[in-house]
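Following the same procedure, sequence and fold were stored together, as reproduced here:

>
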Amino acid sequence: MAITDHHGAQFDLQYEERSNGGIGRLGTVIYMTPREGQKYGLSLMLADKNDASSTYGQIGAAGMFEIAPDWNVEMRAGIGLSADNDLDWISAGGGLHWQATKQTQFYGHYDIASFDEQTFNATAHEVTFGVQTRLGDSPAALFAKASRDWMNGRNGADADTTIRVGVSVSLGRTGNNQPSFRVSDPMRQILRRGLY
């Protein structure tokens, strides 16, 4: 959503249902577009897990730069806190987006987060590859993505693969017509595994 000629806001509303309960997330990025092919800003994510006392959030910064026609690199970093168990973390990540056609986009992301507490210590990794195809001139798009995540450290966990398919709806335009920012969720791994 455009705020001024050089400022905008992105809002993401997600719900993910799993066997151990659903997670609802609200993410936003308030960004600037100082020149063509560049945008950067501040991000915020708030989430809550159903049927459990687990509310958490993350604040950070993100930037996206066009490195060639139809190719964009994304970088992000953040800090987060769980309100119910005092677990906190720092995170960083990067992504590569390729606009293969007017309708179809391919992307890959890597995210890392460090949890360092007296009762819990782990480094979480997640690699994601995906494709998104817009349905004609509508705001809807079909997407499919596969993620591989794992955790190292005292409270590490074996790697696991998640495949997601679905429909996304994007209302409005993104800054500089570049892809939307990714808003990461480092707690998703921990909640899914029931580790904390």
